[in-house]
Design goal:
30% of the residues lie in helices and 27% in strands. By secondary structure, the protein is of the alpha/beta class. The strands form four sheets. Strands 19-16-12-15-14-13-5-6-20 form a nine-stranded mixed sheet, with helices on both faces. Strands 1, 2, 8, 9, 10, 11, 17 and 18 form an eight-stranded mixed sheet that branches.
């Protein structure tokens, strides 16, 4: 076996897969036809979940100059009347980062690639093309043509197809995509404002829900501004993409002397989801698995979540800590999440793209009524779901994203919690809760031995006695309030920061840990009795529940 994983495609999703693979100790090869980062921006927004992942791989500070918190979005109808507003959650921020960001994609991608150079277990092959993948046997065989024309066949346990919306790997396999019935032509225009220009532009993001031509304005970092224009039925994408046509479109806001055109591209905004995300030893991620309309800035976020969901599972299987069948949870978890997020984006797109005057009037009246009933507007994060199935317990708060507070550790260092725990399993204990018996059994358990597990025991400033490496004091109380609001004294968190399950009592927490171990090995609860009876965790849990 040449590699644990071969990653095909080195866009943001493939590059993140490579970073995560190296972080988890997987031997990986990344292959991409291009030798350089694509110079034009495509995605422009991502959320706090993505920023948290960037923080996990040590990228947050490096990209700080290329990102900016996302501004609220206003929806304005013909005549500029405000009909809807989407805002972000207010601080303190649940995940430790601003809820949403705009960013400049090329430098962020370069930073992602730069991190890979520090990973000894990851090899990069740029200017190389994957010609064929055979994954039907005990290993995947990948035929690659290098930039000098030579061909070679390499093997891997798994192949991650991050090869874009046209995905040659998906196409060769003949896999079908579910069409969620959204197909609209749009022109995307990015400009760089000249010094001192743009003072009269909107200060926030605006969706112009106008009958003549729906369009979008986005405030980017620095001098970057974006317009997206719906292409009318009597227009050709090639014609409206010409500089003369673009100048005319933007003249409503800016004279041509105020900006430099960065890029203009015509797209069809689709809502598509791959029906089968795993084919033998091949997994599909990013645009190869789904396409999301851009109206919630979730397109790249969806692909980043794919990588975050899958790579740690591959590492556990490779390390003999989970059954190969555990990897089926990737599709089981991601498809419902992607579908719900895509449908939300599609719904917002339908609001923006309405061209019928009578339907638009009904829309406007409905949205204005909703604004009256809810003057604070919609919070963007409320539209993104948690996990509804897969490797989660079937009781709340399972499937929720786990908060990330600012904490002080036992040595007095202040940082976001992930800096101390990384992407590991976490057993989190509420302040003042006596979980000593749970922790003793956890540390002596053979069934969970080898799993990367951190204990996070919240302590108050008033708590006496010496602090241990498990003790963390919160700075702003975000996590303690979250635990209290969900009625939990213990929660178990997955490496991708989703909650596996929560418990009130020690016995309940023991049952959760036992259920987690069974789920990793794809065993049913009744199979527990057939396992070796010497595990102190099992004996303790059985004693507490009898």
């Amino acid at each position: 076996m040449d590699y644990d994983v071969i990653i095909v495609g080195m866009g943001p999703v493939g590059a993140l897969c490579a970073n995560l693979a190296g972080m988890w100790g997987l031997k990986a090869l990344v292959v991409d036809k291009s030798e350089t980062v694509y110079t034009n921006p495509r995605a422009m927004g991502f959320d706090h979940e993505v920023m948290r992942v960037f923080g996990n791989i040590g990228l947050a500070d490096e990209i700080a100059g290329h990102v900016m918190p996302y501004r609220p979005s206003e929806y304005r109808t013909t005549g500029s009347a405000l009909i809807k507003r989407i805002d972000a959650a207010k601080p303190p921020f649940a995940l430790g980062w601003a809820p949403n960001y705009v960013f400049s994609q090329p430098p962020v991608e370069r930073a992602l690639r730069g991190k890979i150079a520090d990973l000894k277990s990851v090899t990069v092959a740029l200017g190389s093309e994957v010609l064929a993948v055979d994954s039907t046997g005990s290993q995947a065989a990948v035929r690659i043509r290098s930039k000098d024309g030579t061909e070679r066949t390499l093997t891997a346990d798994y192949v991650l197809a991050c090869d874009g919306g046209t995905s040659p790997i998906r196409t060769r396999l003949g896999l079908k995509m579910e069409d969620l019935a959204f197909d609209e032509p749009w022109l995307v225009v990015d400009v760089i404002l000249n010094e001192g220009a743009g003072e009269h532009l909107p200060k926030t993001n605006v969706q112009f829900c106008e009958l003549a031509r729906p369009c979008t304005f986005v405030v980017g970092p620095g001098q970057h501004r974006r317009w997206e224009f719906m292409i009318n039925p009597d227009e050709q994408p090639t014609e409206i993409s010409q500089p003369e046509a673009i100048r005319k479109l933007i003249s409503r806001w800016l004279p041509e002397t105020d900006y430099q055109l960065w890029r203009a591209s015509a797209y069809r905004f689709h809502a598509l989801i791959l029906e089968q995300w795993q084919s033998d030893r091949v997994f599909f991620l990013g645009d190869a698995a789904h396409m999301t309309p851009p109206f919630l800035a979730q397109g790249m976020c969806q692909g980043i979540r794919d990588a975050l969901n899958l790579v740690w599972k591959l590492a556990l299987v490779k390390g003999g800590l989970a059954a190969p069948a555990f990897l089926t949870t990737y599709q089981a978890e991601r498809i419902p999440h992607v579908r719900q997020t895509t449908l939300a984006a599609k719904e917002f797109g339908a609001v923006i793209c309405e061209r019928d005057s009578e339907k638009a009037a009904i829309r406007d009246a409905r949205l204005i009524r909703q604004m009256t009933e809810n003057p604070e507007g919609t919070i963007r994060q409320s539209l993104i779901p948690g996990l509804s199935q897969g490797f989660v317990a079937q009781v709340a708060p399972a499937g929720e994203l786990f908060p990330q507070p600012m904490v002080i550790n036992h040595a007095g260092k202040t940082a976001l919690l992930d800096e101390f725990t990384g992407q590991s399993f976490r057993v989190v204990i509420a302040p003042g809760f006596d979980a000593g018996a749970l922790l003793r059994c956890l540390r002596s358990s053979q069934s969970l031995k080898g799993l990367p597990i951190h204990v996070v025991r919240l302590v108050s400033p008033q708590q006496s006695g010496p602090r241990t490496a498990d003790d963390y004091q919160e700075v702003n109380g975000v996590l303690a309030q979250w635990l209290e609001s969900r009625g939990c004294n213990v929660v178990i968190v997955r490496p991708d920061h989703y909650v596996y399950g929560g418990a009130v009592t020690v016995a309940w927490a023991m049952e959760l840990l036992e259920g987690m171990e069974l789920a990793l090995w794809c065993k049913k609860p009744e199979q527990a009795a057939q396992r070796e009876g010497s595990d102190p965790m099992l004996r303790f849990a059985q004693g507490l529940t009898q």
